[in-house]
Specification:
Blueprint (H helix, E strand, L loop, with lengths): L1 H9 L2 H4 L3 H12 L11 H21 L3 H4 L3 H27 L10 H10 L5 H10 L8 H11 L1 H16 L6 H39 L6 H25 L4 H13 L6 H26 L2 H4 L3 H23 L8 H9 L5 H12 L5 H18 L4 H7 L23 E7 L20 E8 L2 E3 L12 E7 L1
Antiparallel strand pairs: 1-4, 2-3, 2-4
Helix pairs in contact: 1-3, 3-14, 4-12, 4-13, 4-14, 4-18, 6-7, 6-9, 6-10, 6-16, 7-10, 8-9, 10-18, 11-12, 11-13, 12-13, 12-14, 16-17, 16-19, 18-19
Length: 479
């Protein structure tokens, strides 16, 4: 019922301009204890389900990350996902600590718990960023999309490590030394990176072995079945990557993301079909975790911290995130102020902060209930304000690339094995200066126009069709 209701109600997100994942969160709340009455309050189970979902989401993000696309932005992306997260936690944590000292405030956190609350919210949510940018057909200038996707896909490990370290500082007798913290960070990053790379290569070897086993059989396996089996094999390897890396004191979330990058850039046979399967799994994981988190919260409890949550959320959106972005990217003068402003605005919170907010509850940290409710409120605020204005803010900052090609406009795909690629161009008056027929286009050798899209009509091309400005051409080109 939750899945069906979520999908059907989620269709309304396109009409009202709300992020789809926010709809699922609200559906979960509507079916929860303060709505239709489904009782769910098991933080441990929620944390485990969130862990599984986050593994799939981060792996999928890595799978879609092309090294060629992120190479120009790898430095700013990694700075944002490490230094940016740390600065966000420090700046916001200091504000929460100051807010706790106000007489009228109903939260009273010491400095370390204030940092813990900020740390759970310090990373941008990959599911929200991927979902919003992926659902929009607009193209961003200055490689902003790969930069934002790299940041959101790789900054969860830093937020996770900060959360765990601060919980340890509150629960372990005696304070953690700087050496302990440094060693923990080195292990988390080092083992996580190595684990992800090794497991990515191991997964590719397993896929190769699977295909070789099939070749030795007298009866050939159905290609569709082979794709499904390989996709399931990959999902199994994702969970194994997270488990073994975590067991070796590394960061499992970083490992599955890097594992996805390794597999996604290996030129895998039937790559498009496999990514469709993984994409479906990713959407299911996102929907399930947002519905579950909606069930988990009791909206009436959020009312007690609504005022301070609103202040914290507004501070993060207008001060904490922008200041951390400006400071961390200050050495990179090639990135324009408009780009930095847009990066600041796409600091979306989502499922990840709420999942991380369950850790203090499970660890029985004092005030953990307030931490969870504040994080949930700030997440709703972020999705409602920032999530609905991502594209409009890009337009106001003049960061939309109107001349970029949209490869998915026709919904046509070629098998990976074919030595051809598809391209889409939208005609302007300049294209038609020499004439308005295909023979006047002077296409490169080896190129052929397959279809013309005019408004909502699709036209089969021939020599007599008169082209118009605004027409989109689907072109197949030999490699």
């Amino acid at each position: 019922m939750l899945l069906i209701a979520g999908v059907l109600i989620g269709k309304s997100s396109y009409r009202f301009g709300l992020p789809l994942l926010l709809i699922f969160l609200l559906v979960g709340m509507g079916f929860g204890s303060d709505g239709l009455g489904i009782q769910f309050s098991d933080m441990g189970t929620a944390q485990f389900i969130g862990m599984i979902a986050l593994c799939i989401i981060l792996f999928s993000g890595g799978l879609d990350t092309k090294i060629s696309a992120i190479r120009p932005v790898i430095v700013p992306g990694l700075i944002l996902s490490t230094v940016g997260v740390l600065l966000t936690a420090l700046i916001t944590g200091t504000f929460i600590w100051w807010l706790s000292g106000m007489e009228w405030s109903n939260i009273h956190f010491a400095f370390i718990p204030s940092l813990l609350l900020a740390a759970t919210m310090s990373s941008t949510d990959s599911a929200s960023v991927f979902g919003i940018l992926g659902s929009q057909k607009v193209k961003l200038q200055h490689n902003l999309r790969p930069m934002l996707e790299l940041e959101s896909g790789s900054n969860d490990p830093m937020a996770y490590m900060l959360t765990i370290l601060l919980i340890q500082a509150l629960t372990v007798s005696g304070s953690l030394s700087a050496g302990d913290i440094a060693l923990e960070l080195i292990l988390q990053f080092g083992v996580g990176t190595a684990g992800g790379f090794i497991m990515g290569k191991f997964t590719l070897w397993l896929i190769k072995m699977y295909r070789q086993f099939g070749k030795k059989s007298d009866t050939k396996e159905d290609p569709a079945q082979a794709v499904s089996m390989i996709s399931i094999l990959i999902i199994g390897c994702v969970f194994f990557t997270f488990a073994i890396t975590t067991d070796l004191a590394g960061n499992g979330y970083l490992a599955v993301y890097i594992c996805g990058i390794v597999i996604g850039n290996a030129g895998l046979q039937s790559y498009k079909a496999i990514t469709k399967f993984i994409g479906g799994m990713t959407w299911l994981a996102q929907i399930v975790v947002f519905l579950m988190l909606g069930l988990l919260v009791n909206p009436h409890e959020m009312l007690d911290v609504a005022a301070v949550s609103l202040l914290i959320g507004v501070f993060m959106i207008l001060v904490g995130r922008p200041l951390s972005v400006m400071l961390s990217l200050a050495p990179l003068r090639k990135i324009s102020l408009r780009s930095k402003a847009f990066i600041s605005w796409v600091g979306l919170r989502g499922a990840v902060p709420i999942i991380f907010a369950t850790y203090p509850v499970v660890a029985n940290i004092e005030g953990a209930g307030q931490i969870f409710n504040i994080v949930f409120f700030v997440t709703l605020l972020s999705l409602l304000i920032q999530g609905t204005t991502v594209i409009s803010s890009a337009r106001k900052l003049k960061l939309i690339d109107n001349e970029a090609e949209d490869e998915d406009e026709f919904g046509v795909e070629l098998p990976d094995e074919l030595p051809s690629t598809l391209h889409t161009i939208t005609l302007t008056e300049q294209h038609l200066a020499a004439g308005n027929t295909l023979r006047d286009m002077h296409l490169p050798a080896g190129s052929l126009v397959m279809m013309i899209k005019r408004g909502q009509r699709y036209i089969v091309p021939n020599g007599s069709v008169h082209l118009q400005s605004g027409d989109s051409l689907l072109i197949i080109k030999e490699e």
